Amino acid sequence: MDRLQTLEMFVAVAEQGGFSAAAKNLRVSPPSVTRGISALEQRLGTSLFHRSTRAVSLTDDGAAFLPKARQVLADLHDAERQLSGAASEPRGQYYITAPVAFGRIHILPVVVELLEQHSDLDIRMMLIDRNVRMAEEGIDMAVRIGPLADSALIAVPIGQVRQKIVASPAYLARHGHPDKPSNLSDHQTIGSSGPRAVSDWNLGQKKERSVRIKPRLILNTVDSIVTAAEAGLGVANLLSYQVEKSIRTGRLIEILKPEDPTPLPIHLLFERSRRSLPATRLFIDAMKNHAKDQCLDRID
Fold first, then answer.
1. For 124, phi and psi rounded to 5 degrees?
2. What is the pLDDT of residues 191-220, one digit of tens each?
3. What separation in angstroms does the CA of 193 have from each of 120, 165, 198, 217, 219?
4. Which of 16, 43, 119, 263 is 20 to 30 A from residue 213's alpha carbon, by CA?
5. Per-residue pLDDT tens digits for 92-147
6. Cα distance between residue 157 and residue 221, in whole Å
7. For residues 230 and 280, is the Cβ–Cβ distance under 8 A?
């Protein structure tokens, strides 16, 4: 059994969570997967999996080895595509992650379009409001909103969004319309326990105006915060794409607009090894076009 085959088996077992599932995915017999993993462990001189009658899980060495094995297989597949002349047509599985609301509103339409145009392409989307570890979770492309941490990942800017302070017409009728940031201390606010969870709202152009908030209601999803704000439960701090429809239909009203801070950038992030993948190039171009159509590339 060659080294490449044992690497494929290792990645399959890790991703499928078991030897039988990996064998089914690879269309080989379970005993051959067992032999392949044993041969790989013997060659590496370490145990890659904890085995029990109920579950299979990665050891520390296995978890450290997984992204490297994935990288080797990805590089090989990329080289094969280029040599076979198939580099211009996307095929196979492509993994994308994005924030939940942004992914539903802006990424899914692009994905649908790509799937309709390319019959050999399959896409797996992970919509989650946290930054995933791309290599460890096998992600090809990530959509990130906000400042980026320094990393070796390639970042392609596609647009920007901005903070919006909103409340329902009913709430403002009962409690009045705050005309400056300091007035918010007299108002009910809706907080988040997600990635944007903060105790201070920065409302100035360079964050020079910070307002301490004490939410009476804290929620963990964007949709629930929007619903609570529309129900008149308080003032909410959300991003432009999250409340665009609510503002357009009059269910929410933007307040303190002149105090909004600098727009937050939207980037596509991917590893250098993914740059030459046809799906990567197509997704970047499609997202740039979508951003222009939706005016994500500018802030009014």
1. -115, 125
2. 888 666 677 787 765 555 778 888 889 998
3. 40, 17, 8, 10, 6
4. 263
5. 899 999 999 899 999 999 999 999 999 999 999 999 888 888 877 788 999 999 88
6. 25
7. no
pLDDT band of residue 49 (cuts 50, 70, 90) is very high
Whole-model pTM: value is: 0.65
Strand, coil or helix: what is 141? strand
Which structure tokens are listed for 17?
């969570």
Q: Which residue has the tokens 């105790």?
A: 199
Distance CA 242, CA 222 (A): 7
* Single-letter residue type at 33: V
User: How far apart are the C-alpha atoms of 192 and 45, rounded to whole Å?
Assistant: 47
Instruction: Report residue 258's pLDDT band, with 50, 70 and 90 as the boundaries.
Output: low
Strand order from edge to edge, sheet including 141-145: 121-127, 92-98, 141-145, 264-270, 154-161
What are the φ and ψ backbone dihedral angles of 231, each rounded to 5 degrees? -80, 0
> How far is 29 from 23, CA to CA, in rounded Å?
6
d(CA 5, CA 268): 32
Q: Long-range contacts of range 147-153, CB-CB < 8 Å, 24 or more positions apart?
A: 147/264, 147/265, 148/265, 148/267, 148/269, 151/269, 152/271, 152/272, 153/269, 153/270, 153/271, 153/272
Helix 19-26 / helix 30-44 crossing angle, nearest 10 deg: 110
User: Residue 277's closest CA among 94, 11, 73?
Assistant: 94
Identify the helix (H) or strand (E) that includes residue 41.
Answer: helix 30-44
| Amino acid, single-letter form, for residue 251 | R
Whether residue 15 is predicted with pLDDT greater than 70 in this model: the reply is yes
Do residues 147 and 269 touch, judged by C-beta distance below 8 A?
A: no
Contact yes or no for 269/153 (Cβ under 8 A): yes
Q: Which two tokens stand for residue 288?
A: 């740039």
Q: Is 156 helix (H, G, I), strand (E, B) or coil?
A: strand
Q: What is the pLDDT of residue 300?
A: 47
